[in-house]
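Input record (Table S2, row 341):
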Amino acid sequence: MSDRITQLRNDFDGELKAVSADAGANALRDRWVGRKSGVITAEMKTLGKLSPEDRRVAGQRLNELKDYVEAEIEKLQADFAAKREAEQLVKERIDVTLPGRRIEAGHLHPITLLRQKIEDIFVSMGYEIEDGPEIETNFYNFDALNIPANHPARSPQDTFYINDHLALRSQTSTMQIHAMQKRRPPLRIAAPGRVFRRDTPDATHNPMFYQVEGLLIDRGITLGDLKGTVEEFVRRLFGPETRTRFRPSYFPFVEPGAEIDYTCFKCNGAGCRICKGSGWIEMGGSGMVHPNVLRAVGIDPEEFTGFAFGLGLDRLCALMYGLDDIRLLYENDVRFLEQFR
Ligand SMILES: [Zn+2]
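Output record (zinc ion complex):
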């Protein structure tokens, strides 16, 4: 009997070594210590045939073998579980040193960014932002702005007419008329928006472009107020060193009128490539609101005066970013626009 139990243990050890998976370990347990047909269970049943002394010794050894078998199988299963866990950890390992993946987000167009900056300056100076139609009647686009019937700006070669009475607006000055019709002075408004002219597209022209216009009407407003306001506006836009100059000019809706230049934001007036060596950059038109414009909206020019000034966003944007062609701003080429995120 004693040799037989030693043999059983050797057999079990051999079978144990061959098990390579969980299922095999379960089968091994059934085979050796299963309640119905386990090898050790069957061996226990033969003990009754032995003498009492041999039965005691063999029974003890069989019980030891049973404990050994159960302990070995448990150990094996624990090993399998540990191995599975280790494999899982390797599979799910996160390398925190890898560079992250950037989530592509949209961003604002450079002209929108510039427009917002200019709007913020106007608002900080007490102006309200006005928005209005891009299709206008001749009254808003020309008549009320004192543009005479024979003025070349009215020609179909310069203006996009929709019919005899309607056209795409040629300037944001149309918003002056809307604002003055809606509200009585004193008023301060800034009107940003798209305007349309029948220009042939080239590096510095596009048939659609952006303007911003400021208008102030009150009692006792003078040319000095215009100059002071424009100087302050330009300093807030380009920095406190910036200077301005006014050159007499003619626009039908102002009297007197002036072109505004400001010292180059790049060279501060010394002369560089951006300002073509002159030290100055043209900003746009300005002037005291023409009495005829005030009369067109029922404001008495003897009681109220005012000024207006405007600038084009596209060329300014092109200068600020060193673009040599403003059409780049409208082509919606994402590779180009991505630079401004
Ligand atoms: Zn310059």
